[in-house]
Amino acid sequence: MTLWLVRHAKPLIDAGLCYGATDVAADPVATRRAAEALAAVLPALARVRSSPRQRCGQLAQALRELRPDLAATPDPRLAEMDFGAWEGQRWDRIDPTALKAWTDDFAHHRPGGGESVAAFMARVADAFDADSANPGDCLWITHAGVIRAIRLLAAGQRRVTRAADWPEQAPAFGQWRRLATPRQKRNPPDPPL
Questions:
Q1: Which architecture does CATH list for 2-186?
Q2: pTM of the model
């Protein structure tokens, strides 16, 4: 299987806000550009899964308008991590002791009473394992956190116990990555981060 991981376009929300589970729309022009770029490189009849958040659904719809062979199936396992009461708050205004409690118990603490990293990783791993059992190309329209989790899962790391081990980089809004396989060397290059 070749797994394409695309991040939704820039959301219509102020920078610096925590918005994991918050259902916000994405910039329609940026969404269309991302769909056009993907439509040009995706192989025919790839399986498409999408987070149920509207910022991902917009990209799935724009892609289908350009490529009717790429109809997306919503998959709640591809949703971003839920930060509970932190949702909608500025990251720099969240109580530093609450942030420290999370980083001190990165795997099991539920930030804002939301979802723990362990639960999040298990959810994403379930989707990854299910799609990995099928040959061919698969596209996930998802979020930065899910893409970071997949980087770990693809390397065989099923658990993260320290915040320092969580990948910092993810594709920019509207950009994508593919899991590295020897066959992918013939595919067009990914856009830069």
A1: 3-Layer(aba) Sandwich (3.40)
A2: 0.91
